[in-house]
TrEMBL record:
GO molecular function: dihydropteroate synthase activity; metal ion binding
Pathway(s) per entry: Cofactor biosynthesis; tetrahydrofolate biosynthesis; 7,8-dihydrofolate from 2-amino-4-hydroxy-6-hydroxymethyl-7,8-dihydropteridine diphosphate and 4-aminobenzoate: step 1/2
Top EC group: transferase
Protein's recorded name: Dihydropteroate synthase
PROSITE patterns in UniProt: DHPS_1, PTERIN_BINDING
GO cellular component: cytosol
One biological process term in Gene Ontology: tetrahydrofolate biosynthetic process
Cofactor: Mg(2+)
EC numbers on record: 2.5.1.15
Family of this protein: Belongs to the DHPS family.
Keywords from the named record: Folate biosynthesis, Magnesium, Metal-binding, Transferase
Reactions mediated catalytically: (7,8-dihydropterin-6-yl)methyl diphosphate + 4-aminobenzoate = 7,8-dihydropteroate + diphosphate
Residues covered by the Pterin-binding domain: 31-277
Length: 294
């Protein structure tokens, strides 16, 4: 248990359960599993289940026990067709949960919000990162809030109604532009994590294409976060409803780890941690001389 004053948890220190996996190009990346905590009544996967502060906190500490390296707490659904909530309502949902987690949670916490005023309040509570699904596209003040706090900023690729072009060259170019805006605003390069935004402004074909270009995305000079957990395109491919997509999630997680993705945002923490652990064991070259037979 931490002391009684909220403070940042330095991610490099706190992520003691992250797994070191060697990607195809030989670079060692510490894979961090980010557990999703939705304190909303309408999230596509688990809306309403953890809406009360008590249920939310119980689930948060369960994710910690399962091996999460980060907790990502959100109080406004970002599912297709979601109903926006006011800043006042979003904070009403977040405050009691963050107040407890800031005092007692042993791992870093990020808040999933695109509103600068919510980000500022959350940072005052002691969270370590902001996960912005709009990448400051609509609220440029977000970049200043994050820069002033010197916290981790999870920038996600998104766009309004314009369709994404073929080949996803636009995805790479818009991400490069986003990186430049963040750095120009004073966000330290080592505090910036980029996310290709799977499921946002992309159809199933484009989501798959975005996954195929992960080798290029991880070469943009920033750590990468990937969030595909239980998303619609997995259900379309596997003909599976939202509660039956674990195998699809884990297949993509394994692929992403091998391509150098550093953060995996997931609902199923325990299973994802096991995938990370298994990949680490397979690639542990120190075991090569300890064979027990075929």
């Amino acid at each position: 248990m931490l002391n009684n004053s909220p403070k940042f948890i330095e991610p490099a220190i706190a992520s003691s359960l992250a797994w070191s996996v060697i990607g195809k190009k030989g670079n060692t990346v510490r894979t961090k599993v980010m557990g999703i905590l939705n304190v909303t009544p309408d999230s596509f996967s688990d809306g309403g289940i953890y809406f009360s502060p008590t249920d939310a906190l119980n689930h948060a500490y369960r994710l910690v026990e399962e091996g999460a390296d980060w907790l990502d707490v959100g109080a406004e659904s970002t599912r297709p067709g979601h109903q926006s909530v006011t800043s006042e309502e979003e904070w009403r949902r977040l405050q009691p949960v963050l107040k407890d987690l800031a005092l007692h949670c042993p791992i870093p916490i990020s808040v999933d919000t695109y509103k600068p005023e919510i980000a500022a309040r959350a940072l005052e509570c002691g969270v370590s990162g902001i996960n912005d699904v709009w990448g400051a596209l609509h609220h440029k003040e977000m970049l200043q809030v994050v820069s002033d706090a010197n916290c981790i900023y999870f920038w996600m690729h998104n766009r309004d109604s314009r369709p994404l072009g073929n080949g996803l060259a636009e995805l790479l170019q818009e991400t490069r532009s986003g990186i430049e805006r963040c750095l120009s605003a004073g966000i330290a390069r080592e505090r910036l994590v980029i996310d290709p935004g799977i499921g946002f402004a992309k159809d199933t074909h484009q989501n798959l294409s975005a996954l195929r270009i992960l080798p290029h995305y991880t070469k943009l000079g920033q750590s990468v976060l990937l969030g595909v957990s239980r998303k619609r395109f997995i259900g379309e491919i596997l003909s599976a409803d939202v509660s039956d997509r674990l195998e699809g999630n884990l297949a993509i997680a394994a692929y992403a780890i091998m391509e150098g993705v550093e953060y995996l945002r997931v609902h199923d923490v325990k299973a994802t941690v096991r995938v990370c652990r298994m990949l680490e064991a397979v690639q542990d070259k120190e075991d090569d001389g300890q064979q027990n037979g075929p």
